[in-house]
Amino acid sequence: MKSISDISNRSKGIICILFAALGFSLMTFFVRISGDVPTMEKAFFRNAVAFVVSLILLIRSGEKICIKKGCGVDVFFRCLFGTSGLIANFYAIDRLNIADTNMLNKLSPFFAILISIPILKERPKKIDIAAVMIAFLGAMLIVRPTGDNVQLFPALIGLYGGFGAGTAYVFVRKLGKKGERTPIIVLCFSVFSTLVTVPFIAMNFVILRPWQLLCLILAGLSATLGQFSITSAYKFAPAKEISVFDYTQVVFAAILGSVFLGEVPTLLSFIGYAVIIGVAVFRWKRDS
Questions:
Q1: pTM score
Q2: Quick check: helix, strand or coil at residue 184?
Q3: Residue 122 neighbours by CB distance under 10 Å
Q4: Which end of the chain offers a freer environment for a tag, N or C, measured as fewer CB atoms within 10 Å?
Q5: pLDDT in tens, 186-240
């Protein structure tokens, strides 16, 4: 039995990204069932919970709550793209069906590989690009976006959500190379995102029902799991090696929909699951 220290960084990255996929799929589920709540209010709760958790972890660890020298600019861009991408994703969730929203958001690994080229100088092999594209096609089989249910403006906003998330992950990877700590990265992102949403909430505050409050708190906790996991994942390994595993979020979302919302996957969905898992296993075997 291998100890944690014996596991390669790539394997650790894959494990973390699987936990991130589970956390973010739960977040989407709870955000959706929370009902008619303004987008910015949903975003506030999602980030406020992460702020509290990361602050507690930092205080308990006894570490200094400060950004390492030379990391400030990268932290800012991680916060900027992460926050704008998050708000765009929540906006799309409220205005498109959840399948189309997930599809647009799942473009983030593809964007991460592309953005890694100029930012990190990481040149992916042709097989890496092919793997992500095949997984992307598998995701399309699951969600089947059509022109009938995608409105242009919300769809473009949702597309930016995927771009923002993918770009943010690249800066997380860059910060990891510089030795910045995961709780600090999550804390800065949470503070930045929370402060951005406060003025909008003040202008359009909606009193939450107990059920909605519970859903948004659970969404925040799920997002915190996802945030810590995704931050750790891209610190352990480059996007070209692990981003394909992020597509398992679509599988987790389908399971949640089936069990709790009575959504029965179609044959095409099952084919999509097989494609995604097949690509993941292929990558694992090829590089192990």
A1: 0.76
A2: helix
A3: 17
A4: N
A5: 889 989 999 999 998 888 888 899 999 999 999 999 988 987 898 788 788 887 7
